[in-house]
Write a structure and sequence with these properties.
Elements: E1 7-11, H1 16-27, E2 31-36, H2 39-51, E3 55-60, H3 66-80, E4 85-88, H4 104-132, E5 135-140, H5 153-173, E6 178-185, H6 193-197, H7 202-206, H8 217-228, E7 239-242
Parallel strand pairs: 1-2, 1-4, 2-3, 4-5, 5-6, 6-7
Length: about 250
């Protein structure tokens, strides 16, 4: 059990990569807090984890709102008494298409969820991690943040910001024994895939991935598991591309 005794918060855990991470963490002994705005799906995943023998609770949380994030961290500590790991997975995108077609409200929402959420989570969790003598952030960004392509310009920018933010956090928080690492998935089989594809076909996207397939939630979950585990206790500031070779 690689996460035995640890408490982990996973945002965006009701589906996709977040669901995969929450399930994998529970399998490895973590007590998992699933956070999302989709209550029905979040509760369903939580119940499934419990029925499988895992320990998990669901907390409604909007990562784009400071009070909601603070409530998430406070509730976690109230219930489990601690928090060791936070996976910043929640994210959104705009539909693949011309950058000039994206309206301001959509742009603002993308940056609130994909970037400003990191600020809110840090504000809520870093004091807790410092008090307990350390902690671990795993941020889920995207290959779009390091190898952007046309059609997702504003999303690409938000993920680039997440990558650099994670690196800077890692350097500043290292003396506090707080590790910060980032996973960059290639396009995956999640609920956002239709927006990511736009008018493209899966075949076109897959043709640019040397290993010949899209990412799966388990691919990302296994990477997050390693980065959150004690096996990675001297790794911080890393960006791990889980992309079948796309960024080579």
């Amino acid at each position: 059990m690689r996460l035995a005794g640890k408490v982990a918060i996973v945002t965006g855990a009701a589906s996709g990569f977040g669901e995969g991470i929450a399930r994998r963490f529970a399998e490895e002994g973590a007590r998992v807090v699933l956070a999302d705005i989709n209550d029905a799906a979040g509760e369903a995943v939580t119940d499934s984890i419990r029925h499988g023998g895992g320990e998990a609770i669901y907390i409604h949380a909007n990562v784009a709102e400071a009070n909601s994030v603070h409530h998430l961290v406070d509730r976690t500590i109230e219930h489990f008494g601690d928090v060791d790991i936070i996976v910043n997975n929640a994210g959104i995108t705009h539909r693949n298409g011309p950058m000039m077609d994206v309206d301001e409200a959509t742009f603002d929402r993308i940056y609130a969820v994909n970037v400003k959420s990191l600020f809110y989570v840090a504000k809520a969790a870093v004091p807790v991690f410092r008090k307990r003598g350390g902690g671990c952030f795993v941020n889920v960004a995207s290959t779009a943040g390091v190898r952007p392509r046309p059609g997702l310009t504003w999303y690409n920018g938000s993920k680039g910001a997440a990558v650099i933010t994670g690196k800077s956090m890692a350097v500043e928080l290292a003396p506090d024994n707080i590790r910060v690492n980032t996973i960059n998935p290639v396009m995956g089989e999640t609920g956002l895939i239709d927006d990511f594809l736009g008018d493209n076909t899966r075949e076109k996207i897959v043709s640019g991935i040397p290993m010949g397939r899209l990412s799966q939630p388990l691919d990302i979950a296994n990477a997050a598991l390693f980065l959150a585990s004690d096996e990675a206790n001297f790794i911080t500031g890393a960006c791990l591309e889980v992309d079948g070779g796309r960024c080579v």
